[in-house]
Specification:
single chain, 191 residues, mainly alpha, 2 strands
Length: 191
């Protein structure tokens, strides 16, 4: 269990990135093992795995890139790190909204797939279209959930690009902008 120790050093936003990546993997495994009633041949599984790996890796790299990271977007929301300390950490609003979209989308997609699988598992429903539960709201509510969680995953790393460290529109970010922002935050300023 020595691999768990480095997780304690992750920033809240990096930890959210890790949780979202692990969550999308777990959801795909759950779908294949518990809800899918169709054959999923190895080439199709490899294609889905490659797609998810590409998209998740691109999101992670964009999150880490200075010009596209949500860490520099505004506004930031402050949270106490625990009820017993005065330490405060901040998260960009785009990260908070993205996380809410991600969780909501995962719940909608997983629940809708589970509802449909239960309906289809009964012999009297073979060949019928499921129109109850979440499926009463849309014909493909599962795709709506997928779109929400993918958008949330992307938004979590989205950036309100185009502001320098003093708030002026620039069209791009520079390393000096990031250094100035980090320096201002360490000094207790707004940055």
């Amino acid at each position: 269990l020595g691999w768990i120790a480095p997780l304690a050093n992750l920033t809240p936003t990096a930890f959210l990135l890790l949780l979202m990546s692990a969550g999308s993997t777990a959801k795909q495994i759950y779908w294949q093992v518990a809800t899918s009633q169709e054959s999923f041949p190895a080439p199709a599984a490899a294609a889905v795995s490659a797609y998810n790996t590409f998209v998740n890796s691109a999101n992670a790299l964009l999150f880490l890139a200075l010009g596209t990271t949500s860490l520099l977007s505004r506004p930031h929301i402050s949270f106490a790190s625990s009820s017993t300390t005065t330490e405060v950490f901040t998260l960009p609003l785009s990260t908070i909204v993205g996380t809410v979209l991600y969780v909501t989308g995962m719940a909608i997609e997983t629940l809708s797939e589970r509802q449909r699988a239960e309906f289809k598992s009964r012999e009297e429903n073979k060949g019928k279209v499921y129109k109850e539960g979440l499926w009463r709201y849309a014909r493909h509510v599962n795709y709506f959930g997928y779109s929400l969680w993918r958008a949330g995953y992307c938004m979590r790393r989205a950036c309100c690009a185009g502001r320098s460290s003093d708030g002026r529109p620039t069209g791009r970010r520079t390393l000096s902008d990031a250094r100035a922002l980090v320096g201002a935050r360490r000094a207790g300023g707004e940055g």
